[in-house]
Sequence to fold (314 residues):
Amino acid sequence: MITLIELFAGIGTQYQAFKNNYEVKCIGISEIDPRPLKAYKALFGEPNNFGDITKIKELPKSDVWTYSFPCTDLSIAGKQEGFKGKHSSLIYEVYRLLCVSPKPKVLIMENVANICNTKFMPQFQDWIDTLTELGYTSTWQKIKANVYGGATIRERVYMISILDTDIKYNFPLAIHQDKVLQDFLEPVKSEYYIDEYYGPTPSITKNFFNSVKLCDYKNGGQGNRIYSPYGMGVTLTATGGGKAGSSGGLYYRENKIYKLSPIEMCKVMGWSKEQAQIICSVLTPREVGFCMGNAIDLTVLTKIVKGIKEQNIL
Fold:
């Protein structure tokens, strides 16, 4: 039985990824936002929530900690204050807890691709060096979701840190993708209809590598770009603009323009239809968009955790 602690737990993607690979017990989480907590409780039952990470004195012994800390100050949509920003600086609470708690065998981090750009890479490297001083060997990689079978081109950085060993985690090889966005969609519903479509007719040839933009809706801009469903989906965003909102983009369907439904947003982030229905039963459509925009892609994390199992790290 693997034990897990989810810091910045969100809706519990980390827990589900481990459930997909191991017999696992989540012994506690840290989450203060009521929106993802509602989904977490609906999916997994009442968690042992340690609450605000800044107020946790120490954590119990566990095999794994996950820490998808806030990306607010790293994201291109933020103020670019980096690890010193009000929200992203919460990563240092993880360091504090590592210093006062039994250290887990494995640490798993996920964050925006911007964390390793020219501006923030020195801060990210300082964090890696800090973990090294604590006894961890870390491996990181920037991954697009579709590379591991996901429905979108969402790009994130993942890092696996292993305690007291020189063994480095090897990220799994890319898979042969065989699905595009169309394969994740539900039957069209009128409430997600935006407008008539007058752009170029999309090719039905499937593109497994990229999203396929057809044209702009009205003046274009974020959330007002129209894409083919025969390519990959665009990245969901927590606070998206335009007609698409959190679903990131608009899509051509049956000669009209549609945005993703809440069920579809959950499905493209790796959740089954049954799980999506559970999530959508306790959240408003706007809350679903916020949670999915902030969430980790479940398909990707499941593949990464499978790699941990196959490499006998746990």
Summary: The domain at 181-286 is CATH 3.90.120.10 (DNA Methylase; Chain A, domain 2). The longest strand covers residues 136-144. The radius of gyration is 20 Å.
